[in-house]
Write a structure and sequence with these properties.
Belongs to the cytochrome P450 family. By secondary structure, the chain is an alpha+beta fold. Helix content is about 50%, strand content about 10%. The strands form three sheets. It has a six-stranded mixed sheet, with helices on both faces. Strands 7-10-9-8 form a four-stranded mixed sheet. A two-stranded antiparallel ribbon has the order 11-12. Bound molecules: protoporphyrin IX containing FE (HEM).
Length: about 525
């Protein structure tokens, strides 16, 4: 289940919440036949005592459940029918809850609503009262024990990481940030270059990703050298092995015909990216990388990343690790059962697990590209005039090169919405003669801040593909060596797959512009986070 399908909140009693809940609940049987006063009284009570959960999706209330707290003995006697009257509400030291209202706008929200009730009523015996309007007597359901649900840890992680990213955008727009970052955030190009040019001194510390699998993305120094030699040869060959037309075919098969559905563009792009990487590796079949398992892995990773930054319980870490191990095991087992892939993995290396290396590479190679394609679709939806212009100029010329506007568009998407929006490193030793970094000092680099640095970008917060910084030189090429532009980083730890990524983005943009129905929206996308930066 996607925990981000809807946001679960416990609300306050106020006019807005009362009206929203009443409007939702009274639209569904049996509540549409209840007296207005009775309904309103119950809802008011549940809002006031916070004995409820609300499910919100894109600003709309899509689910509501409310209950009364009671003493377990009274609730049990009510359940058995020994007492017909509803137990008196008990606000303190209650050990049971009787759910009296559950309404969801669509059945897809029901599992989340049930988990939300269980989570809010953790430790209580939860009974459910079901009423009918056709004369049948009320049905009293046996109790279940409410429990803490891991799924809500994902929601908290998502809110924390999205909050952090939005804070970076707030600072980028010249306002004071709201969060107190425990480590300094850098946006100055010269300082950032210092860090990226010295990978042995500023090492990676992505423990949350290491918990998924060991691979080149997270290792340092000699271990990294070995691992990068293993895969870089494929990435370097990728543009020859996967020509632009083949990538267009892939994106055309997987991107949705209309951009309306939630996550449809991301999921389609993810599948196309999996095929692209598989072909880059010289494989005849796409590597098994199923959407549902990957979504589950992403949630666990996001949770672990949030715990690293904001803290969390040992039990959450344990559960996340257990879930992740099991998912990864299922994926790797599938790979081992595929003779061609198993053979390929076997020939790669015996020094360490090629399977684990591949797990990490698949994550690095697909999440970022899919998120960028999603950003491109959202920006096109908000800028119909630009879409029309791209339709007219085209995305690729006859030689297969990006047209100027298409190139400016892709560069600008990666500038304002860098998929990897911030990066962390730990300094290993001081060099007082050169700079002020201390041994063991952790640093965070905001690519959002760098890409919107006011000394390097005119009107930095404006999405402006034809901005002066992207003006082509005389021969029609844009100089990409901008000092405050590093969506793929720089130095030895630069993105291993950037050439393939750029080619994929070209193919995907072509498909979006020429083959997709882009549903217009009134606003530029808002920013949220899901392992990489994603439109909200
Ligand atoms: C728009 C798409 C992409 C973006 C914006 C992007 C960005 C990045 C960034 C910023 C890093 C460095 C992270 C860090 O050091 O903390 C990175 C690393 C990496 N990326 Fe990408 N990436 C993209 C697509 C890809 C693709 C398609 C592949 C593979 C086919 C790939 C493979 C890798 C690998 C292997 C690394 C680790 C490099 C190393 O340290 O050895 N990426 N990427």
């Amino acid at each position: 289940m996607n925990p981000l399908l809807a946001e679960v909140r416990v609300g306050e009693l106020n006019d807005a919440s009362e009206m929203a809940v009443h409007r939702l609940v009274s639209a569904f049987p049996p509540f549409n036949h209840y007296s207005y006063q009775l309904m309103l009284g119950k809802i008011r009570e549940q809002l006031m005592f916070k004995t409820h959960v609300m499910l919100w999706d894109q600003g709309q209330l899509v689910g509501y459940a409310g209950w009364s707290l009671a003493e377990a003995s009274e609730a049990q006697s009510w359940y058995k029918g020994a007492q017909t009257a509803f137990p008196a509400p008990k606000m303190q030291n209650a050990d049971a809850a009787i759910v009296t209202i559950t309404v969801v706008r669509s059945s897809e929200y029901l599992p989340l609503a049930i988990k939300a009730i269980s989570h809010q009523c953790a430790g209580l015996q939860v009974y459910r009262l079901r009423s009918f309007q056709d004369g049948r007597p009320d049905m009293r359901r046996p109790p279940i024990l409410g429990r803490t649900q891991h799924i809500f840890s994902y929601q908290r992680a998502y809110a924390q990481l999205s909050g952090l990213l939005n804070d970076l955008y707030l600072r980028a727009s010249g306002k004071a940030g709201r969060l107190n970052f425990p480590i300094p955030i850098m946006i100055e190009p010269s300082q950032i270059q210092t860090v990226f040019r010295q990978p042995e001194r500023f090492i990676k510390n992505y423990q949350f990703l290491e918990r998924l699998a060991e691979g080149r993305f997270t290792t340092n120094n000699d271990a990294w050298q070995k691992r990068s030699r293993l895969t870089q040869v494929f990435y370097n060959n990728a543009t020859r092995q996967v020509p632009l037309n083949r990538l267009k075919t892939l994106y055309q098969s997987f991107l949705p015909s209309s951009t309306a559905g939630k996550s449809a563009v991301f999921n389609g792009a993810l599948q196309a990216a999996v095929c692209a990487v598989s072909e880059a590796f010289g494989l005849d079949e796409p590597i098994y990388w199923p959407l549902d398992k990957v979504e589950a892995l992403r949630n666990e990773l996001m949770l672990l990343q949030a715990i690293e930054l904001f803290g969390g319980s040992a039990q959450e870490v344990e559960t996340a690790q257990r879930n992740m191990d099991s998912l990864r095991h299922q994926i790797v087992q599938h790979w081992q059962q595929n003779p061609a892939l198993a053979k390929w993995l076997h020939t790669l290396t015996s020094e360490f697990s090629a399977e684990l290396e591949l797990v990490q590479n698949m994550m690095a190679a697909t999440e970022t590209t899919a998120a960028t394609v999603e950003w491109m679709a959202q920006v096109l939806a908000a800028q119909p005039a630009l879409l029309a212009e791209l339709k007219q100029t085209g995305v690729s010329d006859e030689a297969g090169e990006l047209t100027l506007l298409a190139q400016q568009f892709i560069l600008e998407v990666l500038r304002l919405y860098p998929p990897v929006p911030f990066i962390t490193r730990v300094c290993q030793f001081a060099k007082p003669e050169d700079d002020d970094f201390q041994a063991n000092q952790a640093v965070a680099i905001s690519l959002v801040g760098l890409h919107t640095h006011p000394q390097f970008w005119k009107q930095p917060m404006r999405f402006w593909p034809q901005r002066p910084e992207w003006t082509a030189a005389a021969e029609g090429k844009i100089n990409l060596q901008h000092p405050a532009y590093l969506p793929f980083l720089t130095g030895p730890r630069v993105c291993g797959g950037r050439k393939l990524a750029m080619l994929e983005l070209q193919a995907a943009l072509d498909v979006l512009v020429n083959h997709c129905e882009i549903r217009t929206t009134s606003e530029m996308p808002k920013v949220s986070y899901g392992m990489v930066s994603r439109p909200a």
